[in-house]
Design brief:
Layout: H1 2-7, H2 11-146, H3 149-164
Length: 171
């Protein structure tokens, strides 16, 4: 102690200063240091959470982008399938329409042929009747001049039977 007195240090003042410094240190620790540390810890934790959230959001964005790409590939494949099916349907409808048109044309052609054959038969029959009538008239005029009545009757009946049994006679 004497050494301290020789240096001009008062032990009571030194102890009171150490005590004051300790109290000040305790007060500053409780009032400033710990709240500042807590504030820094809270800030560090919020930064960590923000980083985790950022990583999670980035990962979700990558997953969503991958899903979007998969969906786009699927949509493109579906669209291509629908387009191909539509082409097949159009080709099928085209074939059906062509078949129906051909069938209708064949039907109309057959009907036209039948009508032509019927008209031909009618005209042929009319011509045969006219020809037979002319032959009969011509023959009767010839026969009146050169044959007797009995010869005329016999010849007329033979002509009539040959005309009605001819291959061109209407059946």
């Amino acid at each position: 102690m004497e050494l301290l007195s020789a240096l001009g240090v008062d032990l009571g003042v030194l102890l009171s200063q150490v005590l004051n410094y300790g109290i000040l240190l305790a007060v500053l620790t409780f009032l400033l240091y710990r709240p500042v540390l807590n504030l820094l810890d809270a800030r560090r934790e919020s930064i960590r959470k923000a980083m985790e959230d950022s990583e999670r959001i980035a990962k979700q964005a990558e997953e969503m982008e991958a899903m979007r790409k998969k969906q786009m590939v699927k949509i493109e494949a579906d669209a291509a399938g629908l387009l191909e099916q539509a082409k097949k349907d159009v080709a099928l409808v085209k074939e059906q329409m062509l078949a129906e048109a051909k069938k209708e044309a064949d039907t109309q052609l057959a009907r036209g042929k039948e009508e032509l054959l019927a008209e031909k038969s009618r005209i042929t029959g009319d011509l045969e009747k006219v020809a037979a009538s002319l032959v009969v008239k011509l023959t009767s005029k010839l026969l009146e001049k050169e044959f007797s009545a009995a010869d005329q009757d016999r010849l007329m009946s033979a002509l009539e039977s040959s005309v009605t049994h001819s291959p061109h006679a209407k059946k």
